[in-house]
Amino acid sequence: MVVLxxxxxxxxxxxxxxxxxxxxxxxxxxxxxxxTFSDLTNxxxxxxxxxxxxxxxxxxxxxxxxxxxxxKVKKKLPIKEIQKFVSCCHKTIxxxxxxxxxxxxxxxGDFTNIKDYINQC
Length: 121
Fold this sequence. Notes:
Layout: H1 2-32, H2 37-43, H3 48-63, H4 65-74, H5 79-83, H6 90-95, H7 97-108, H8 112-120
Helix pairs in contact: 2-7, 3-4, 3-7
């Protein structure tokens, strides 16, 4: 039984180290897009429905190669193109653009732990 607990601690230690590396890489990526965590806290939707809409938009962008490429190259959201695919209004997407962009980077990138956390929320 003790061995099992030690193994769990070792696994969680490895998982924690992997998560720390993932978060550090994500922070660096956000810097490339000129986004800070402070920006994200200010632009995060307070309404749960708006948060879910933002997640839907981010997933849509990550699943559409043309939109994902636009985000990677231009480092901004293609708001007019997004409106062709979702029923969200222009004003909502614009208001939460930094938040949606940050979520998109998670879905497009290799941030499995962060992505799992978002999907649980």
